[in-house]
Amino acid sequence: MNSFQMAWRSVIRKPVKSILLFFVVFMISLFFLSGMASRNASIATQNKTKQAVGAGFVIEANEANKRNRADKILAKKTEGEEGNFDGVNVEKIETNYGTSWRVSYDNSFQTVLINDMEKIAAVSGISEYNITTAVTAVNPVDFSRIEDDDVDQSSDLLCVSLIGNKDMALDANVLSGNVTIKDGRMITEGDVDVCVISEELAEKNNLSVGNRIQFNDRRNVENGTVFGAEIVGIYRVQQKMMPVMAGDTYRSENIIFTDLGFPEKAEGSTSGALYEKAYFKVADVNQYDEIKKEIQKVDIGWERYDLIDNNGNINKMSQNFNDLENVSQILVIVVAGASLIILFLVFVFWMKGRVQEIGILLALGTPKIKIFGQILLEASMIAAAALFLSFAAAPAASDITADYLVQQQVQKATEQSVLEEGKVAKNAVDSEETVTGVSVAVTPELMLYDWFGVALLVVISVGAAGILTARKNPKDIFSEIS
């Protein structure tokens, strides 16, 4: 009788112990796979403030990633140190309530990277693309902005807002049909120092196509360099554009579209431009899903971005959704630690039930390594069956686990928002995201990791439990039985 036959007979001879080990290994494998799969979960969210993006894709910088990168940078600085650290500004502020710290980012730290966007634009099936700057507040030099006479302006920046575009026709406001040209034309690629203003702003200042208006840095109104832009178009809106922050600076009538490079100059930026998003137009809508897959294969740092499709859905890796990756990592570690303890106790139970058999084999001169090798073979046969069954159940279990973890993150964010209500500055209208779906993929790679991890736990547990028995000789074992 060979080793496998002996192992199989031993497994079926004690079904209760075998079923116990099977169940334990099955649950361990399932938790391992669920934890690892949740780290790479794709989370579809619906952002209610997103405007339609047409048959195309939008790339935006991911806020969670910016915070993570900033935390890593700040962790390296000396406590109490002020200054600029790789694009993260730290400033000490003395108030009546004591010392506080202000953290802000340079444009270079938080911008969407042009090189990355050019790589995506090169994907086959992308016909056109646009890059849009963040809304930039600048001081109007030779014209008046639109203001609400009944509102106290002392807390406002007293500025107008610039939005730079590589191609204005692909701006989200234009794609949605909300912004249309009343007079003149839109800004196109290659334009320099040009702008398109609202019909309200044009009427208030008696401006028309061909006139020039000027701006400078709002932080240095008196001495900041003045930059002029030629008006090439006047626009009107169907509905007022959503302000990014409260105040007349950001109201719809005071938004001025410019060429891509102008906001950086007018703002007086010393850290480059702040590109907020990029839009990629699909040539053939019938190839939409295929093009999306090709975009996701582009070799860029995807952790920096959110990919938004034409339904306003955002596909985020787990790292990009708050702390889901960290939570999943902790789950895997906790499962590994608990599994090792549980498996050790199971095999101690096994050894105690077979102590007489082990004593007889030792008395007959059977090497200890062979005895425990036989026990390991039995455990491996049971574990293998449990692993295969767990692979079949893993997709459903992983979906449930990832969905639960995501909902916990949503609840945590909601509770944090309530705690911060009235304590922190927010946009005029908060960006409200609702999770519409969570999907995970249990890949062959994850199965391989799971198999290796479970096998390692079984080997360690059998070895640790076997040491307790291996230290005894046959005489000691039989005396314990008596």
UniProtKB/TrEMBL annotation:
Domain ABC3 transporter permease C-terminal, residue spans: 330-473
Transmembrane regions: 330-350, 371-394, 451-470
Segments forming domain MacB-like periplasmic core: 110-297
Keywords linked to the UniProt accession: Cell membrane, Membrane, Transmembrane, Transmembrane helix
UniProt entry tagged with the keyword Transcription regulation: no
Residues spanning the signal sequence: none
Top-level lineage group: Bacteria
Protein's name according to its UniProt entry: FtsX-like permease family protein
Native species: Sporofaciens musculi
Pfam families registered for this protein in UniProt: FtsX, MacB_PCD
Protein's membrane topology: Multi-pass membrane protein
Record-level GO cellular component terms: plasma membrane
Main localization (coarse): membrane
Compartments (UniProt record): Cell membrane
Gene Ontology molecular-function annotations: transmembrane transporter activity
